[in-house]
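Field reference: "sequence" (input) and "structure" (output). Example, B30.2/SPRY domain-containing protein:
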Amino acid sequence: EEEEELAVAVAGGPWFVAFAGHRLRCRVEDLLPGQAYRVRVRAVDQWGNAGPFSAEAVVRTERGAAFRFDGAAAGAAVFVSADEMSASFGSNESWSTILGSRPCVAGRNSWTLQVDKSATNYLFVGVATRHADLNTFLGGDDEGWGYIGDRALYHRRTKVRPYGERFGPGDTLQVTLDLDRGTLSFAKNGHDLGVAFEGLAGELYPAVAFYNQGQRVTLASWSCPGVGLAVPGCPQPQGCEGEGGGFRALRRWRRVALAMAERRPLGDPPGAAWAGAFPSPGVGPCEAFPDPDRPSE
């Protein structure tokens, strides 16, 4: 019995096998938003003999947010909106942290948060590793670096120094993580507050920590060329930029179905090339038909 093998590559990058099996459909996840991918398929018989690959098809994933708030990576009483662009707090006078859905892994990354509601200045923004304690404030352990609206920086559960300006409802906060230089900086309402932390490295997630009931923040914009989980065999993630409101209605890019292959009719020669006609991401599955006249690679 034959099986299908689907190979995927970032445009200009190396190929990797995304699927091999007998299913007529497959889904490739954890792709990058706004990225072109090359796709090709081939048949492999029961003895492991592989036919030639089809001609390449090029698909592009939808552009979307560089990251969203991750309800599965949040402390107690943190709630995430349906579009995952806003986070709010349902408890009072207790600290709770939420992380973004994807880490910064390289380069200079910047995102802007809108403070929608907050009764006090007890609100943190910053970054953390995936090992951070989410039931304390941001900077309450070795795994987080936080800027509180009460005008101070925290790390290792210690107030590092006074910093910046107080912030609250109506303010926008730009967070800039430059992993080329290892620095974390902030800006309030477009005013640069300078470098807050140095010596940062590794996979770091955008993070927010709440203290008072009803606090709410929204991801407003982003420019994050170094955000993402690397696809095996592919180069570092490509950048994505956008304004929050314009993309909230988009389906999540990582749920795009890339390809569906129909088995060739009985009697078709083993190893015949497959010509794929792949739709735009998000449209749905596609069909691939044998094309004996297409030259093999």
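The two ends are 24 Å apart (CA to CA).
DSSP finds one helix and 23 strands in the chain.
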